[in-house]
Amino acid sequence: MSVTYLPLVALMVFAAAMAVAMIAVGHFVGPRRSTPVKRMPYESGMDPRHDARRRFDIHFHLIAILFLLFDVELLFLYPWAVARAHPEGLAALAEAGWPVDRALILGEVLFFLLLLALGWVYVWRRGILRWR
After folding, report:
1. Among positive and negative, which fits the CA dihedral 32, 36, 42, 45?
2. Cα–Cα nearest to 41, from 31, 54, 30, 52
3. Handedness of CA 45, 49, 53, 55 (dihedral sign)
4. DSSP conformation letters of 34-82
């Protein structure tokens, strides 16, 4: 084995040993009080005491979709923030022949944030975030 891979192998062995140690300590030290409530299945914040074919509240699905929508927004803002923090990256793109216009980029980001704000206002006005 090459010496250059030795730190990587050591890190992998250390991570595996830590995982095994944490599982072992949790198994031997952790509490073991089993109650009927702990043995009961738990689904989406609702007690499963009714028929499986009953109507399900759509509120949980709406919250999940909203979480994904507003979480993915960070994926679009991250490259802009990195480019803003390191302007030499934009200068390198401009030197390579890419059309880089800082005002246009800022306008696109502000338009994106405006759309997100309008979506947030729509969700707020519809009462989707109100817990019932």
Report:
1. negative
2. 52
3. negative
4. --HHHHS--BTTB---S-TTS---THHHHHHHHHHHHHHHHHHHHHHHH
- Mean of pLDDT values over 88-108: 79
**Rounded Cα–Cα distance for residues 125 and 114 (Å):** 16
CATH 1.20.58.1610 fits 51-126, yes or no: yes
First to last CA, the chain: 61
Separation CA 80–CA 104 (nearest Å): 12
Rounded to whole angstroms, how far apart are CA atoms 4 and 64?
Answer: 44
Write the pLDDT tens digit of every residue in 30-61: 888 888 877 777 666 666 666 667 776 777 78
Query: CA–CA separation, 32 vs 53, rounded Å?
Result: 34
Residue-averaged pLDDT of the chain: 82
What ranges do the domains of the chain cover?
A: 51-126
